[in-house]
Each structure stands twice: as structure tokens, then as C-alpha cells.
Amino acid sequence: MKITNVGIVGSGTMGSGIAQLFIQSGFNVVLYDIAVDIVEKAKDQVITRIKRLIEKGKIDKEEAEQVKLKLATTAHIEDLSCCQLIIEAAPEKIEIKKDLFEKLDLHCSEETILASNTSSFSITEIANCSKRPERVAGLHFFNPAPVMPLVEIVKGAQTSIETIESLKKIALLIGKTPVQCEDTPGFIVNRVARPFYNEAIKIFKEQIASIEQIDRIMKYAGHFKMGPFELQDAIGIDINFATTESVHQSFFGDARFRPHYYQQRMVQSGRVGRKAGAGYYEYE
Fold it and tell me: Which residues bind NAD(+) (predicted)?
């Protein structure tokens, strides 16, 4: 099956970023969210980012106009029925994701590949809500999706090899580096990353070093592009905390992945990073 139309469910930071990535790669995209004003705001943000690419000389005006025409928006999930690939990028709550996959099952062709951008939830559990679990897989992008090169392709217990191979080809077509992994908590990257965040918070709260010092040391000594606190602010502290909770629970309370209360307090305060104007750092 040739994939020309791609549906994106969820128009937040990840969803709009994935939509931008696909339209720039020549695909027609239908971006869905629960309300017209929400999804139209996301479309405006995509267009703004494309304008910045023009200013930087990475794309010319004519090409940009053609790219923008490939992005449609909707607040009706049935409008995704024309898509051969649908990527769910809804909030990281398992109930929301399972409900969406049940609805997508009703409106999409049996040949449609349904993929989840979840960073930690079980693809096998999500696929169990679908009548075509062999066509369900994980397709985990990293933030910002148009820039970060890696994509995790996650095989659930019933995901077919054909589905995995199709997603690998799609990843290569959009300029990404695909890595296949099994359906384990946190997959590869988010499992490895938990100590990076959690130990940094512990070091700060034990007054061994400040947030600024920890970030500076990791960048200049470890050659990380961003320190653990800067990275949390960029991703969203709320998203990071939800992922840590999910991985911790999925490993049956393994102490290695236990969330830190301070991260929870940041979420409770509303200081969840760049998108909120404040997190571990202040933003204008």
C-alpha cells in the first residue's frame, strides 16, 4: 500500500512537529484535535516555523507555499478515513490513547497503519483496543520532531513484520534514522534517560550543585547539547514526569526509576518549562 496521506491525532508540540515534518517531506497531512480553535492555532504555529525556514534560506518561498497547501486540519476524527498512516500524538495518558484507537478503528480502512508516538506506554496494550493489532505499532519521535534524527519503531506482541518494514521505509523517506525495538517500558531512549533526569534532580536537592552548574558540567564535560534541566524544560516537565511515572509503574516499582517529588512539585506549580514561560529557568 502506497502511503500518501498521513493523519496526525493531537496538535500539541509533538503532533504539530510531526505534521510539519511530513508536509515538508511531500506527504498530505490531516491534523486532528478536539476543537477547531486548538488545531487552527497549531497550524498557524507550523506556518510560522516554515516562514522561519524561508528566512534562514533553508526553503524558498515557492516551495514553502506548496508545502503549506499539504496541511489540512479538522476537529472530526472521521476525516482521517482517507489516511493510509495515522500517528497518535495525544497527551501521555493511557486512557486517552486507548479511546482514540477504538475510535480510529471505526473510521479507518483495515489496511491503515495505526501508530502511537507514546514514549513509554505498552504498544501491546494499546493495540489490544484495535481489531487490527497486527497493523498497530509504536512510532516514537523526539522533540523537536522536524530536527531530531532518531525514530523508535516499536513492535507490539501482535505487530506484523510487514507493518514494521513499512514504518522503517516511511522513516527513511522523511529523513529519519529508524531503530526497531521491543515493547518494553520506556523502549530504549527513555529508559536510558531516566537516570539522567532523576539523578540530576537528586544532586540538586542534596545541594551538591546548582541547576546551572549541573547543566554546564554536562554540556562542557560530557558534551551533551543540553543539560538535564534545560532538556526537561524543552520537552515539558509534565511530559517528562508522566514518562517517569509510567516507566516506574511498568517495572513494578523498581527503585531505579522512581520519580522525584520535586519534579512533581514543579508540575503542580504549573512551571512546566518553555511552553509555560517558566520551568527550572525563566523564559520571556
Answer: 10-15, 33, 92, 97, 119, 143, 275
Annotated binding-site residue? 92:
yes
* Residue corresponding to grid cell 516511511: 170
The yes-or-no verdict on residue 189 having pLDDT over 90 is: yes
* The model's pTM: 0.91
Which residues neighbour 56 within 8 Å (Cβ) at sequence distance 6 or greater? none
Q: Which three cell numbers stand for residue 43?
A: 497550524
Which whole-number Å values give the CA distances from 264 to 63, 195, 217, 238, 251, in the listed order?
A: 44, 16, 24, 8, 19
User: Is 119 annotated for ligand binding?
Assistant: yes
Length, in residues, of the chain: 284
Task: Please list the alpha-helical segments (H only) found in the chain.
Answer: 13-24, 36-55, 61-68, 94-107, 123-127, 161-173, 189-205, 211-220, 228-235, 237-250, 261-269
Q: What are phi and psi of 240, to 5 degrees?
A: -65, -40
Residues 138-148 pLDDT 10s? 999 998 899 99
Region at 4 (left for phi over 0; alpha for psi -120 to 50; beta for the rest): alpha
Residues acting as catalytic residues: 119, 140, 152, 190
Per the annotation, does 143 bind a ligand? yes
Residue 1: closest CA among 102, 135, 97, 178? 135
